[in-house]
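hey
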């Protein structure tokens, strides 16, 4: 059965190149992970099921015996590995604006988690929150944060913009590679994966800002995402709900508009595939409820309202149906 979760194929090329520099046959590991390097080279904008990519990361760590292997992958990542999003990043008016675009279009890179920005008076936090039940390698998180730092450094010529980094994963036996790479405080065993950066530096105007190029790159991204979603209407709606839920519960009209189809037509297409918008919304709400209860510090009340419940009692009843227990009991299990 085809997975609903995938990542951009071009990232595997950076992994293979890093493996080869370490004296490891990266192409052979790709074959073990049931991936074909020639196909990826011919179509780097293809999608790879997250299970295969996670398997490749696991094989890479085993072959190199390097828990910090993900950090070294950033040496072989360039804006083109992000495809059009990379160009958009390099032509935005500020680094802060870049991160807003990354959050908006993160599904181009991967649809395996939730991505959010958090602003404080002094900092901007770039968060990657994995979804419960979707196995993402911790090396992939390392590689993404490290690559973001390297790309920003190309514009800022310094890593002084990094304030601190948080990782959900447990503290490794030797955390020096992470401290040395990020040149800042690194905390493990946190509730979130978050790259905290200094807001004043990120919001400064970029000398590389090019509004016309940025607009063109954004149109390319939108075309890509539209083509990426040419599968079943069930999967297209599910992914659209996934992306929209980071900003609040979406409506049928919002999702229909996003997919450029009328509400009645969309409902009819979903019915033909033996599902409905309401059932897909409920499925995603359950998935996110499990994630927030197990992996966030949000109170039960906050989770309930974040997922569109009018009151906590309705959320309690939903959790009883989903998990056979109350939200608090599920969180403490």
């Amino acid at each position: 059965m085809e997975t609903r979760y995938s990542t951009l194929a071009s990232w595997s090329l950076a992994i293979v190149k890093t493996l080869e520099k370490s004296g490891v046959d990266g192409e052979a590991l790709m074959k073990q992970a049931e991936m074909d390097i020639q196909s990826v080279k011919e179509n780097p904008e293809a999608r790879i099921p997250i299970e295969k990519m996670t398997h490749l990361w696991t094989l890479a760590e085993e072959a190199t015996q390097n828990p910090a292997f993900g950090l070294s992958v950033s040496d072989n990542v360039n804006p083109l590995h992000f495809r059009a999003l990379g160009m958009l990043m390099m032509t935005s008016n500020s680094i802060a604006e870049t991160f807003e675009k990354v959050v908006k279009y993160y599904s181009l890179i991967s649809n395996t988690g939730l991505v959010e920005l958090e602003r404080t008076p002094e900092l901007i936090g770039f968060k990657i929150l994995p979804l419960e039940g979707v196995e993402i390698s911790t090396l992939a998180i390392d590689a993404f944060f490290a690559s973001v730092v390297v790309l920003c450094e190309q514009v800022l010529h310094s890593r002084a913009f990094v304030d601190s980094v948080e990782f959900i994963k447990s503290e490794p036996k030797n955390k020096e590679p992470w401290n040395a790479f990020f040149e800042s405080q690194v905390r493990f065993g946190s509730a979130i994966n978050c790259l905290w950066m200094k807001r004043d530096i990120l919001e400064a105007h970029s000398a590389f800002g090019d509004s016309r190029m940025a607009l063109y790159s954004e149109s390319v991204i939108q075309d890509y995402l539209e083509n990426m979603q040419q599968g079943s209407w069930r999967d297209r709606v599910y992914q659209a709900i996934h992306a929209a839920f980071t900003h609040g519960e979406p409506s049928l009209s919002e999702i229909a508009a996003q997919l450029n189809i009328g509400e009645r037509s969309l409902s009819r297409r979903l019915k033909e595939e033996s599902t409905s918008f309401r059932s897909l919304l409920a499925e995603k709400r359950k998935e996110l409820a499990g994630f927030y209860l197990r992996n966030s510090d949000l109170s039960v009340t906050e989770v309930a309202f974040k997922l569109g419940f009018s009151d906590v009692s309705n959320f309690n009843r939903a959790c009883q149906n989903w998990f056979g227990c109350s939200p608090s009991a599920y969180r403490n299990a």
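The chain has a mean pLDDT of 84. The chain has two domains: 6-202, 229-332.
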